[in-house]
Design brief:
Two copies of one chain form a homodimer.
Chain A: H1 10-17, H2 20-29, E1 34-35, H3 36-41, H4 47-59, E2 63-68, E3 71-76, H5 81-97, H6 99-117
Antiparallel strand pairs in A: 1-3, 2-3
The first copy, chain A, binds a DNA duplex (30 and 30 nucleotides) through helix 3 and helix 4.
Chain lengths: 129, 129
DNA sequence: TTATCGCGTAACTGATAGGTTACGCATTAT
DNA sequence: ATAATGCGTAACCTATCAGTTACGCGATAA
């Protein structure tokens, strides 16, 4: 058998990851596959909204869908994330390098950051609906 | 001196990375700091457009700006990417795991992928847009 | 001082994306 | 057969963003 590697569109992947709800869906699916309804139930947005997110994730091939009776079960497909990881790797050396020059920046700026970082944290299993 | 860790808003980071032009700007800055004009010159869009991209990157703290005479030099700040990397790390085990179950998917789907993957590749120093 | 350069901002346009409600289509349950 | 469930799609509204041109301001050059 040939060793073919699948080339995913990084563009679609980044695009899909840009939305916090979609990242949360992925985080949710790391725990195991789930039907669309249960996924939607985990978020404070409507079911159609989640449906659209799922379609986007499907097109980015970050999830796969298969039917079980009248359920549509969604499964994580982490393969496209490899491309993102390898893009990031190009920067890995940089953030090891710049620690000293970063320091001055940090002293001045970190305060503003921590303030708004709290509310933008991804919740893996969100509460209300 | 204390060893404080800066918490960046992953939300802003992902958001900034969602645009291919902005990723290309970062890729450009890996080669070294540059004034805004030169960055703009590397892209087929107007200078104000790049200026707005730079502002977004600035707000995501992915770049820093300092003035040199009448130039505004932009410098890469890769620190926020660490958060993205650590998010990705949670998926690293998954894409090592799923290789076999991925196989069936690949056989069926890879054709469509390769077709559109060609035109969506990120160019480090992009040409037209 | 005056002209020019570098660059950001304002104001506007068009496209896109996330959200909603309403609806329709299968599939299971009664 | 009929009702109910699960879920996607259509149609719509709104906010945001990428792009443009016009303008203004500070810094250098003449």
């Amino acid at each position: 058998m040939r060793n073919r590697s699948v080339t995913y569109s990084s563009e679609a992947t980044f695009q899909a990851l840009a939305d916090p709800t979609r990242r949360a869906v992925l985080d949710l699916l790391r725990r195991g596959s789930q039907p669309a309804g249960e996924i939607a139930g985990a978020f404070p947005v409507s079911r159609p909204a989640i449906s659209k997110h799922l379609r986007l994730l499907r097109r980015a091939h970050l999830v796969r869908e298969h039917r079980e009776g009248r359920h549509r079960v969604y499964q994580l497909n982490p393969a496209p994330l490899r491309a993102v990881a390898s893009w990031l790797d190009q920067y890995r050396t940089f953030w090891k390098m710049n620690l000293t020059s970063l320091k001055t920046f940090v002293e001045a700026e970190y305060v503003k950051e921590t303030k708004q970082a709290a509310k933008t944290n991804i919740k893996t299993v969100p509460g209300k609906r």
